[in-house]
Amino acid sequence: MNILSIDTSAERGGLSLLKSNGDIYRFEIENTQRVAENIYRYIDELMSKSGTSLKDIELFATILGPGSFTGLRVSLSVVKAFSLALHRRIFGVETFRLMAFEGVNLRGGSYRHILPVGNARRGEYFISGYDTHLVEIMPIRIVKMEEIKRILIENENALVVFRDEDVRGIIPSSQEAVLLDKDLSYACLNFAKKYCDQFMSETDPSSIEPVYVRNDVVRLKV
């Protein structure tokens, strides 16, 4: 299956392409600040490099969030446009489930629980929890620094995964933690390949929306 994944959920992102013959191509986006006006050019460059046409893509995948408000809307709008124009399937995965997936891949499932953590700014942090089968055991929420430190101490046998460097300072030194790549497009590609049938619903692609956590963020259809 030919799969194209897009990650513009953070300040650095990328594109990843899996061809049916097993070849993998990647395109790094060093700064997603102007991604809205450049995303189609980036995709064209990747298609040209790989000798692939968009018509060859059978599944478009992206990250749903939480993440950059603008970045999430851009990537989801792009895959929806391709889905409608080419009559292809699209697949979206929550950021923290994907981070848990990477944690299991890197540590071989040697921990019972994976705790993805992210910087929510304003002195607050995102946190959620998954088991090694990627079943959510702690719904994502935003907590203050004092509370997240307490949660981490209470779950000292869990593996913490994060991709914001400034999260490192709140993790107890005794706790196992893994800093993930900012660009999760390749992880998204692997996740879609392995789990698209399990996690993909039959919902109309137009109804798929970004995942926002803050109550003060308006949910917009894209």
Largest sheet: 5 strands, mixed
CATH class type of the largest domain: Alpha Beta
Major beta sheet, strand line-up:
3-2-1-4-5
The termini sit apart by 27 Å
CATH topology of the largest domain: Nucleotidyltransferase, domain 5
Structural class: alpha/beta
Shape: globular
Just name the CATH architecture of the largest domain.
2-Layer Sandwich
Uncertain stretches of 5 or more adjacent residues: 215-222
CA-atom Rg in angstroms: 17 Å
Helix content: 25-40%
Strands, total number: 10
Report the CATH superfamily of the largest domain. Answer: ATPase, nucleotide binding domain
Provide the number of structural domains.
Answer: 2
What does this structure look like?
The protein is an alpha/beta fold and 222 residues long. The protein folds into 2 domains: 3-95 and 182-207, ATPase, nucleotide binding domain (Nucleotidyltransferase, domain 5); 96-179, ATPase, nucleotide binding domain (Nucleotidyltransferase, domain 5). The chain contains 5 helices and 10 strands; from the N terminus they run βββαβαβαβββαββα. A 5-stranded mixed beta sheet has the order 3-2-1-4-5, with helices on both faces. The chain has a 5-stranded mixed beta sheet with strand order 8-7-6-9-10. Strand 2 (13-18) and strand 3 (24-29) form a beta hairpin. Helix 1 (35-50) crosses helix 2. It is globular, with a radius of gyration of 17 Å.
